[in-house]
Amino acid sequence: MFEKGGKLEKFYYLWEANETFLFSPASTAKKTGVQIRDAIDLKRMMMTVVIAMIPCLIWGIFNVGHQHHLAVGETVAFFSVDNLLFGARWVLPIVLVSYASGGIVEAAFAVIRKHPINEGFLVTGMLVPLIVPPTIPLWQVALATIFGVVVGKEIFGGTGMNVLNVAMTARAFLYFAYPSQISGEVWTQLAGETAVDGYSGATALAIAQNTVTSGGNDVVAALGEFFSLNNMFLGYIPGSIGETSTLMALIGAVILIATGVGSWKIIVSVFAGAFAMGTIFNLADANAFMALPAEYHLVIGGLAFGAVFMATDPVSAAQTETGKWIYGILIGMITVLIRVVNPAYPEGIMLAVLFMNVFAPLIDYYVVEANKKRRLSRATV
Amino acid sequence: MSKILKLKKGFDINLAGKAEKTIADSPLSETFALKPTDFIGMKRPKLLVAEGDNVKAGTPVLYDKMQEDVMYCSPVSGEIVEVKRGAKRKILEIKILADKEIEYETFESFNVSDVNSMSREDAQAHMLKGGVWPNIIQRPYGVVANENDSPKAIFISTFDTHPLAADLAFTLNGEAEAFQTGISILKKFTEGDVHVNHNSDAEVSATFGGADNAQHNKVSGPHPAGNVGVQIHHIDPVNKGDIVWTVSPYGVVQIGKLFNTGKYDASKLVAVAGSEVSKPQYYKTFAGAAINKFVAGNLKQDHVRFISGNALTGEKVEEDGYLGFYDNLLSVLPEGDHADFLGWIMPKKNVLSFHRAWGLFSFLNGKNKEYVLDTNTNGEERAFVQTGTFEQVVPMDIYPTYLLKAIMSEDFDNMEALGIYEVIEEDLALCEYIDVSKHDVQEIVREGLDLMQNG
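Structure tokens for the assembled complex are given below, as produced in the milestone run.
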């Protein structure tokens, strides 16, 4: 029915997507060329990334509940059913909306353009919910995901052709189109209840900025016990759903690196770049934020999540091995630069990744040119 | 100056069913075929015989209108029983029913001092007429060499690292004299060196190790360390305008025999191997043998694929098909036309993968585990997504993805700058195997080479 000439020929690729989801295809190697093929395919590779994100998602669900109960003054254990139920109530709809809205766009483009549905969206659909605050209106999630998929990817020709990271494009869209829902004190889902006296929903980055603007001189003191290095590393802090826990991001990093799906060079170099830039600021020491010990930059905000899941997107990252080092280091450095120097943008990783996405082809260009030059110089010898 | 190469990059595909070093006691195939399609550069094949003609081993059967002096000769004596043609009367197979006793065309033979004092022109004329010229392959492009060229060097790889590859030290055992003659003849064609490259991880065979007039190099590493293209890249790379020639050890021996004995000797030992073969071993036959005698009663099951050549670069042939001109291996693998429930996420331990993505546990098995792999594609074609993996299986200073993209966009300048002259299909075959997005890498490489050669 869906085959060529069939009644629903138009929807062949929709049918094909479902079919290949249930059963891997029975296709065999061609007459010439390799007669055997590796066991991997793009679906499996993408699912590996999704699996690596699951620790972040689970932590995010508990933490949404945890932050809520803190804010309203109830004391519950972190890994409690209360936290789980409350978190799931707010997080799962975001995940569903993201997958559904993006999936519809993918399917529509596949049908119009007559190509198979690409698996890249399995990852994007999970990334978007993890980088938005739990208070985000669902319609904004849908709009941002559609924007990300269409403008970030489909106008360039679909998966594999995009210049920008799709999920980061979606988030940047939200950030600039609806700033009031994604900045300020939106990180705690109060669900209509009132916060206890003295509760502040500010994030560590906001506190650091405020310290500078209010003329304070010790960011670490301003962060206090609540934002201790330890708490920020583990992730008992407010923030976007999936990015609060550096530890969970690192577990994801271990999965990506062990499976070879994510580039360890990029992950390591983003952290290294951020630490280096933090250290340079420490030496400059011109204001309180610059004096913040460099290691704080590694656990604050979305750096770890961005380094592990955003910067490593193979399509939008640098593609040469030398290029990956340069690309990662610059992302780390620019992230810290934006955080410390530009008070308008409390978090730098989003813009740093997008910025370097644009420059990745240039980095690769010079790495590949060097290869060509080696070949040319050999010819004259 | 001999060189020692230690290559790190690459990937060994360890298939089950390697040929044991025994020679089967089996009747000779009844028919043999010469397939013009085995010669990649051949543009306008012309027949010199008709159905019903009788030929001897070494009788010219075919030539290319674009390269009229190179004769393609019958491997056996017998009767031309069929000229099989395809669309637009393209010649596909010239089938020869072999005599019980093979009769040979008589060519002139030479003793050692004649061979050494012979001029290039005389040697060339003898080789062209005697049917051994097609053994000489030219880089760039991987086509039969132009007899008027003088290559800057000639390369011979004495070992094959492809899956299930025949052991050349075994198949050419005792041919040291012919090998030496072949080297001495080839040396006349180049001002540079004749490079004979050995596997450092194995004992050097007496057939190849003692040859004079050659530079002996040693190469170690996983596949594609045995590929002559990879060796050329590290020893004396092909730059723009350069020409080098490559000859298989079998080809060198065949050239040597033509001069030593005056015969076009197309006899060879071929390996019949693969997980579906009951008794994988070697068979004595001639080039272009029908495969039916090798597999009749020698299979574990029916649903198999016959591959003339190895599993990475070979060609599927039917049960009544023939081995290719250059091939010394028949691989028999299970056909993989089965759909697997949730096959894209289920853990797989027994399917070899270069990758370690979720559920692919073959890396835990160690290097010595032998795999039964079928012909399933394990996924469908997608856009290029994963980066950095092709580079890990190509031990050359080349960016395969960039080269492939340059070919796909028909960007001549970039193809050249990115090293298209240095590769042929087999050098990037591993990329095709490991490709997450299932591209036909070898087909793309050939398109690029065709573009560069013919514009």
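Chain B is about 20% helix and 20% strand. The mean pLDDT of chain B is 93. Further analysis is deferred to the final report.
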